[in-house]
Amino acid sequence: MNFSNKWINVLVLITLFVGGIIMGKTFFAKTSTYVPMPTTAREFDSSAGSDSSGIVSAASLSGDILEVKDGESIVNAVKKAKPGDLIRVYPGKYKETVYIDKDNISFQGVIIEGEWPTLDGEKELNDAFLYSGNGILIENFKIINYKGNGIMGQAGNNFIIRNNWVVEAGVYGIFPEFGKNGLIEHNVLSGIEDAAIYVGMCDNIDVRHNEVYENVAGIEIENSRHCLVENNYAHNNTGGILAFITPGLPIKTAYDIIIRNNFIVDNNHENFGAPGSIVSGIPPGSGIIVMAADDVTIENNIITGNDNAAIGITDLSMGANLSNDPDSEPNPDRVVILDNYMENNGNNPVGEVKILMKASMLDSAPDIIAIGGGTGSCIRDRERYNTFGLGGWGQCATADTKEVITMMLDKPVAPRAITMEEKGNLTYYGVCAGCHAYDVRMIGPPINTIQAIYNNNPQGMADFMADPTHKREDYPEMPPQNYLSPETRLAVAEYILTLKQ
Amino acid sequence: MSNKKILGYLILILIIALSSFYFLNTYSKDQALLSCNCPPGFQLTEVNTCVARNLYLQYNSLQNSGVGGLKSALPTPRDGFSPQQIDLGRLLFFDPILSKDKTISCASCHNPYKGFADGMPVTIGVGGAVQTRSAPTIWNVAYLNSFFWDGRATTLEEQVQGPLYSSIEMGNTRENLVASMNKIGKYKKLFQEAFPQSKNNSIELDELYTAITAFESSLVSLNSRYDQYAHGYANALDENEIEGLNIFRSFVARCAECHTPPLFTNQQIAVIGVPELEGKPLDLGAEIPNNDPSMRGGFKVPSLRNIASTAPYMHSGSKETLRDAAEFYNLGRGHAVPDDENLRLHWHIWEPNLTDVELDRLVDFMNTLTDESFMPLIPAKVPSGLAVNIIKPMVKIKP
To answer: What stretches of chain B adopt beta strand conformation (E)?
Structure first.
């Protein structure tokens, strides 16, 4: 792998995008003792709620800073970390799967004189980062040689993944799943055998200023809503940018997706997707593909040198070899193609497109191909392009999407509001009721007996729960409930004292 | 008539009166025995319904889909039945009166001591009839939106009628069932108590389906060690089990992509190419009810909660242990698909090349999904007077 080429790419990216300039300062600071400012300290507000990483300006970091140096373990730091803490990882090699089942933990790689903290799976480990917590921030890591994913999120909301450099990290580079309100920006990813950036079953995600190349798919938005894919550079992937509905997933829709201001160039890489994977069916030379997704706007992209087509729009019948899903609506509806620059595409279309050309007596391959069903789609200035299958498309009424600055929420997703009384209620009926009932003997003593003992002493009851002793010969010993947090134990003790039936 | 004789008659009358009083008394005591409390995991409302309460109600899930990660909400459950309906359903569930020859109850194949499955590769119905599929557990069915391995029923009421009237399961008919139920005076009383709005005083089949549905939806298992971990207690799982969790949710093994928390199923149909039992033909699965060849060999993704209690595994029961079941995914995409079949195998079926150690860790993790703390009371006797025949095994199933 030629890293100096990648640096040139990084430099190109930085020159291209204003946001990159700040990053450049971070990367190329010259003093050897220089340590970058924790960006979390500027942008992360853990006081905004127990379940949120606020994108709040000028807030201060509330938690502690934990430092991890070469030879130490990031996982151990996570074990020590509390919500609100920042884990700063210094240059070195870390062969770990960092899993984060806590909220509001930030990870910041510290890059010193071009030396990155590197998570290296050595093709033995599955994933580099796995998080289920909300409010996770991961920035400035180099991630190489994993077999599964570089960074994978499962149901974490309010995430930020940026400035990471992901090389040959397996199936997906960055893959948030079931997440709401997230930002993926300034990452550089290559050599990924499925999608480099894969937004799967998410809502309100911005994917901006990333460079993706030599992957099977560059950026894929799948079964997700309210996504903005902007200012990315997707080159020499098999397919550049995809907006898909995949049938057979538990969340069925994809809509309100803007693909805007991207460079989508020379995506002609051989398809090296795993046999049976959905992306293994992507024809090399695909700039943008919309499959079954609705309300996709494609605007102001520069799409050049993609040998199959600049834009392909298809229904699910093209997703061959998938089982049908009666709950997935198969047609791409209301696709909006505004001003785009397309040139030099379709030089070597795949067989099916050649057959189409022959049947339609076209001499050059189209820039835009639409196949299958779908209604309500439109295109602006269609004369600018070679098109196929756009006969039913109208002229767009809208000119641009400039009113949409971001698809992220203006406030972090808040956790479900729950009072201590509700917490006590859920714990009592959800846990304690297995052994205790109000006035009948079950496995443990009745609640009214317990109430008599701990009248006005909820803390005493909470303490007993955590570390019970065998008090009564006529009942079995209670197992410790120390897995409930102290506040949950107190909440349920207080709740138990209020029970009347 | 001598005085002695009169006295004798009087005593006889007294005995009859007393015994009938005693009988009636027991009768009304039986009525009072239909529980007026909700089972664990439920709170009684002011309108005498039981609503599900558990720690997962602290969370949301994206698009209210009921899938996600550790702290995600469950799907919306079936709940809101009365305590009496649930309790009546419990008696019905264990009563062999529901089957044609009065030998098989719901619990015969959904045995609480066997994880509410039956421990056999495929189930055995009336007269020794052999079913083609394995009995699934019914823990947590309240959270499912489709039933049977091929997903052909969308409600539990619909599901209940499958085995009742299948000639190779309980073998009953609607006519026979309704007649035999209405012959049992005790059931008539119990149904009246559970369905006080009912206009006539005979037992209706719909009431029977409702009661069984009510009981089945009360079987909740959400307090495993995994759950303790998910709610934030890091020490609930040991190092091996956490490693197993990380393999489970990694994109190499991809288990969590379909067995998605918190229910450990995404409730979709998936074609994965599981082998049938030796010598059995390919089970066409979801192709049949959907009349769709693209779903050939597709089955509903089962929940993995309490999975350690329900061996053998898969729709065909062809995998004896959890280790075997996990290993299936490691043996190659389509390795067990018959040569003349061209199934549309799910895209997550690939060749993960997990190591033996990783497979062991996956089993370690799956063993943490066991929780039978809300086990319902198994009735010692049922209103039909038939034997319950659910015997507690000598060896307790390892938790």
So the answer is: 42-44, 50-52, 269-271, 298-300
By DSSP bridging, strand B50-52 and strand B42-44 are antiparallel
Exposed (0-12), middle (13-18) or buried (19+): which is B178, by Cβ within 10 Å? Answer: middle
Domain extent, residue B28, equals: 8-33
Up-side HSE of residue A143: CA atoms within 13 Å toward CB? Answer: 39
Tell me the ipTM for this assembly.
0.88
DSSP label at A302?
Answer: E
Query: Any residues with CB less than 8 A from the CB of B138 and at least 6 apart, and which?
Result: B110, B116, B216, B219
Euclidean distance between CA atoms A64 and A61, whole angstroms: 8
- Which residue among A170, A202, A430 places its CB closest to the CB of B53? A430
pLDDT tens digits, one per residue of A41-57: 344 433 333 333 333 33
Tens-digit pLDDT profile for residues B17-67: 545 544 444 444 444 569 999 999 999 999 999 999 999 999 999 999 999
Task: Mention every residue, 6+ apart, whose C-beta is less than 8 A from residue B162.
Answer: B147, B148, B153, B169
Cα(A163)–Cα(A170) distance, rounded to whole angstroms? 19
- Which residue does chain A place closest to B225, by CA atoms? A483
Range A420-498: architecture per CATH = Orthogonal Bundle (1.10)
Distances (CA, A) of B398 to A52, B320, B358, B393: 40, 16, 22, 12
A124, A278, A431: best mutation site toward chain B, by most B Cβ within 10 Å? Answer: A431
Pick A429's closest partner by Cβ from B43, B295, B347.
B43
Domain ranges in chain A are 1-170, 214-417, 420-498
